[in-house]
Amino acid sequence: MCGQSIDYNAIAGTKWSYTYDHIHAIAKDGHVRGEGRPAHRSCNARRGNNEVPKTATSSLER
C-alpha cells in the first residue's frame, strides 16, 4: 500500500504489523473474502473506508 516492506514477524496490532486491506471496504458492502492486498496496520487504518486510488494495485497484479 505504501510501498515499504512488511515485517510479517511484527507483533500483531502494532503499527508496522501485517493486515489484510480489503480493496472494497467491508463497511461499504465489500465482502470478507473480497479482493485485497497486504498492508501495514497503520496504512490500512489511515485509508479507513475510503476508496483505493486508481493508481493502486492489488498484490495479485504485481
Automatic annotation (TrEMBL):
One of its GO terms (molecular function) is endonuclease activity. Keywords: Endonuclease, Hydrolase, Nuclease. This is HNH endonuclease. Residues 32-62 are annotated as: Disordered. It comes from Dermabacter vaginalis. It comes from the Bacteria.
